[in-house]
């Protein structure tokens, strides 16, 4: 992406207070002759301003303009296919995908902005208060239109540079770009075709921008097919990663894997869980992660039996296990890893027994994926419940008379969560895609069996109480239908973990 502006090296701008000089297009063109080039700063990093992060051909890290165009094209093709079998008359389709809005901790204090994943996926734009409109007319012609905040010298002094609609066509590869305030007027142009128009949008996403939501709601009342759900169609695209996306997944998983390894090696008896939170966050950011992908679980001892424990405030006592569930975001893509290790450097007998159960189970599940072909995540969960029950029978934690559904139910009481979810731009990615879907090349997902035995549980021997163990890796189905473990660099064998702690 080669976005350049030209300015004369000897230009003098008036220093009168409040004076802003505005050039007409013709004057700008003349002014640009025989001048010096330098990169423009826009509302997000580019290959010129951030060459350590992006190539000049990329709109966002790892993703080119051509890939963004292809995503938009595929979405409109899927919309056309999904309606062709139900409608004999050609229709106009309008897709509206809003950006995220800014959110505030308190008065004028913003949270770190994170773009809505569907909007980022289709536009590549990282600015708040924006809208992408896609139009497919009844003859099959399509158009993409991006609405953005205008350039504003005062606002940009406070909140940073904006791209503005002037450069958006070149940067994001859309057909048109306008100021956000023109969205209502633009949408009204379709009212005359109201009886043949289908509106595709998502209520929840639109509500982040109240004025946009109000206008879309008014428009939807005038047309034949208001608010067809578009999210599930976008998620069907997002769940299959391109080769560029898989590379980003490899990188975010590599960063988190190495960060967790370093955190394990730095952990010591007497540390606070909060200290380990800080270390894994630091280690990820020092390897160019944007931030942690979610509030991490750093749970020692009995805290690890609370699956979503995020208080992270306890001092880690000698002899306890530490369960860390952490991942990072890099280039808009997330990792999600869980490791469990002994803070004193050696697993005790009961800890080792249960850790062996979960490690063996996870390896069994990965082997199932390699050998079964057309499996799905729900099948993997069913397999986990049965095998976990069998392994717990072997170590004396489940009655050996149980089998079938009764055995699976008993195992579920020790691990009451699914063993897998899709992974990508979001941690729990593409939630509208059923976990009954057959796994295909390009799908990324977790494999995360665990066991949680509260210190208050009375139906197990006392030596196993207060232990929580989970092992989680991130996997992708390759083009040859094999499994690549993206987090394989993160230690999980007993000796590896013990050696890391003792470093």
UniProtKB/TrEMBL annotation:
Entry keyword annotation includes Transmembrane: no
Classification via SMART domains: AMP_N (SM01011)
Keywords per UniProt: Hydrolase, Manganese, Metal-binding
Domain Aminopeptidase P N-terminal, first and last residues per copy: 63-207
Endpoints of the signal sequence: none
Family that this chain belongs to: Belongs to the peptidase M24B family.
SUPFAM superfamilies to which the protein is assigned, alphabetical: Creatinase/aminopeptidase, Creatinase/prolidase N-terminal domain
Record flagged with keyword Ribosomal protein: no
Name of this chain's protein: Aminopeptidase P N-terminal domain-containing protein
One GO term of the biological process aspect: proteolysis
Any one GO MF annotation of this record: metalloaminopeptidase activity
Coiled coil residues, start to end: none
InterPro entries: Aminopep_P_N, Creatin/AminoP/Spt16_N, Creatinase/aminopeptidase-like, Pept_M24, X-Pro_dipept-like
GO cellular component terms listed in the entry, alphabetical order: mitochondrion
Cofactor(s) the protein requires to work: Mn(2+)
Gene3D superfamilies per record: Creatinase/methionine aminopeptidase superfamily, Creatinase/prolidase N-terminal domain
């Amino acid at each position: 992406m080669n976005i350049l502006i030209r300015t004369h090296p000897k230009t003098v701008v008036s220093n009168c207070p409040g004076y802003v000089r505005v050039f007409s297009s013709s004057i700008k063109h003349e002014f640009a002759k025989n001048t010096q080039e330098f990169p423009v700063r826009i509302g997000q990093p580019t290959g010129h301003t951030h060459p350590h992060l992006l190539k000049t051909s990329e709109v966002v890290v790892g993703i080119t303009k051509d890939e963004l165009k292809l995503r938009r094209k595929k979405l409109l093709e899927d919309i056309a296919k999904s309606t062709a079998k139900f409608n004999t008359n050609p229709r106009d389709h309008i897709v509206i995908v809003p950006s995220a809005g800014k959110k505030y901790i308190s008065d004028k204090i913003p949270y770190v902005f994170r773009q809505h994943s569907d909007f980022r996926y289709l536009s590549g734009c990282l600015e708040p208060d924006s809208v992408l409109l896609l139009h497919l007319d009844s003859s099959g012609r399509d158009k993409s239109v991006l609405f953005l905040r205008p350039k504003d010298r005062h606002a940009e002094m406070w909140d940073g540079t904006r791209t503005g609609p002037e450069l958006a066509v070149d940067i994001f590869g859309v057909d048109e770009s306008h100021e956000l305030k023109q969205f209502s007027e633009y949408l009204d142009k379709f009212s005359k075709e109201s009886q043949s128009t289908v509106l595709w949008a998502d209520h929840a996403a639109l509500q982040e921008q109240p004025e946009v939501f109000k206008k879309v709601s008014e428009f939807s009342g005038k047309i034949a097919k208001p608010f067809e759900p578009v999210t599930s169609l976008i998620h069907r695209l997002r769940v299959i990663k391109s080769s560029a996306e898989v590379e980003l997944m490899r990188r975010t998983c590599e960063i988190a894997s190495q960060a967790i390894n370093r955190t394990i090696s730095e952990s010591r008896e007497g540390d606070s869980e909060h200290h380990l939170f800080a270390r894994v966050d630091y280690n990820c950011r020092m390897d160019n992660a944007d931030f942690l992908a979610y509030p991490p679980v750093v749970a020692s001892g009995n805290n690890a039996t609370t699956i979503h424990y995020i208080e992270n405030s306890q001092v880690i006592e000698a002899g306890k296990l530490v369960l860390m569930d952490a991942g990072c975001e890099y280039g808009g893509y997330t990792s999600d890893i869980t490791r469990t290790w002994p803070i004193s450097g050696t697993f005790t007998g009961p800890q080792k027994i249960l850790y062996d159960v979960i490690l063996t189970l996870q390896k069994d599940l990965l082997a199932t994926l390699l050998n079964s072909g057309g499996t799905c995540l729900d099948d993997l969960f069913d397999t986990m419940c049965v095998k976990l029950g069998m392994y717990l029978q072997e170590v004396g934690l489940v009655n050996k008379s149980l089998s079938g559904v009764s055995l699976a139910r008993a195992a579920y009481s020790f691990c009451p969560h699914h063993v897998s979810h899709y992974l990508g731009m979001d941690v729990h990615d593409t939630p509208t895609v059923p976990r009954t879907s057959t796994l295909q090349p390009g799908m990324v997902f977790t494999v995360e069996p665990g066991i949680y035995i509260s210190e208050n549980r009375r139906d197990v021997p006392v030596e196993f109480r207060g232990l929580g163990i989970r092992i989680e890796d991130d996997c992708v189905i390759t083009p040859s239908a094999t499994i690549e473990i993206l987090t394989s660099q993160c230690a999980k064998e007993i000796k590896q973990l013990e050696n890391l702690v003792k470093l």
